[in-house]
Amino acid sequence: MTKPLDGIRIIDFTHVQAGPACTQLLAWYGADVIKVERPGSGDVTRSQLRDIPDVDALYFTMLNGNKRSLTLDTKTQEGKEVLEKMIKTSDVMVENFGPGALDRMGFSWARIQELNPKMIMASVKGFSDGHSYEDLKVYENVAQCAGGAASTTGFWDGPPTVSAAALGDSNTGMHLAIGILTALMQRQKTGKGQKVSCSMQDAVLNLCRVKLRDQQRLDKIGYLEEYPQYPHGTFSDVVPRGGNAGGGGQPGWVLKCKGWETDPNAYIYFTIQGHAWQPITEALGRPEWATDPAYMTAEARQDKIFDIFAVIEEWLKDKTKYEAVDILRKFDIPCAPVLSMKELAASPDLRKSGSIVEVDHKARGKYLTIGSPIKFSDLEVEVKPSPLLGEHTDEVLTDLGYSADDISKLHAAKAV
Ligand code: COA
Predict the structure, then answer these.
(1) What's the pTM value of the predicted model, to 2 decimals?
(2) Does the annotation count 303 as an active-site position?
(3) Record-annotated residues binding CoA (predicted)?
(4) Which domains does the chain have, with CATH numbers?
């Protein structure tokens, strides 16, 4: 079956997480993604947090499936010549080196355009071009702090807190993938390539837009009625951390279920959606709350919201998180169990949907990885294991027109 991105060749000059997540996504959908790595060591994640000695770490294998690996020392003259050939024959180059690294290597945007005016050059950096922090190297949590996630996450009496979700890394990679596909569409119309950039700060901020909404509301009226600080606590002039409060105007909280004393994830998220109030009162066995003016409206409930959550927790005391959700779903109440990674890994639903897949790696054997979170009616995404370091070096060089003799010389010169 032909894939949507069949025929698109991508030079994958990425490392760690932000860039590799982007190119892996494009590889799933059919692009020929050639991961260019330094001979000998490759992407640092191959050896980071290893669970099996001398075998590529899961950090690498879970971000580099469906790709080919070429080792190339782009600081040698021979290596630069190979990269030039690749640029001339590829559609997209993706990189997430520290600021200025590509220019220092001799591959500025101007030079790349000279080599191939149709090239789409896509970059992830910590901060956008021209930003006063543009020279900074950035990792995940740095971006979460710079993009507004940390200052608004956690509890009001604790420090800024980062999320376990890779809002800075994989999220930026997803944004970049949208940028690349957009530039490919535009190239179909104009015949020209372009530079596509995505900063980690901007990608985090994009996901924190409701907090920018809240800042403006706070500036205007001095309080935020859906935060736990309202109405009994106080507000300063900055958006506070709201614990587990719902961000969209539906009050909600993480509530204890049976077994919470020993199981760190025996909780559900419970949402008191306005129009679900009546079913909630029924589910809780408190039907009188449906008609009591002190409880009838979201506004009336707000000053008692934690008392209401306490009543719900009392109701949850003898129910596991799964039993609770099974009851609440009958009343159309938006809720879910708090799921551990162990539970997600074993979930038959996620295996069935292909959202978690098992693949077989040459050196590691079987491992779990994430499958495409985007589902298509006319595309079956096959998730393949990551390549070994340099597994496809000779194959890629042959594709580029190098003879066996030339390839031997490149090996001898330690350029590949
Ligand atoms: N052959 C020869 N040299 C190579 C090479 C290859 N195949 N691949 C990379 N290099 C060199 C680069 O030219 C650069 O050398 P230089 O600094 O002498 O010019 C160096 O390796 C890579 O540097 P850098 O990307 O800055 O790596 P780092 O380990 O110091 O920093 C990051 C890592 C992630 C902090 C940094 O890359 C960064 O800020 N990236 C942008 C933001 C980002 O994506 N961060 C999140 C990662 S999940």
Answers:
(1) 0.97
(2) no
(3) 15-18, 38, 72-75, 96-98, 104, 137-140
(4) 9-206+347-413 (3.40.50.10540), 252-333 (3.30.1540.10)
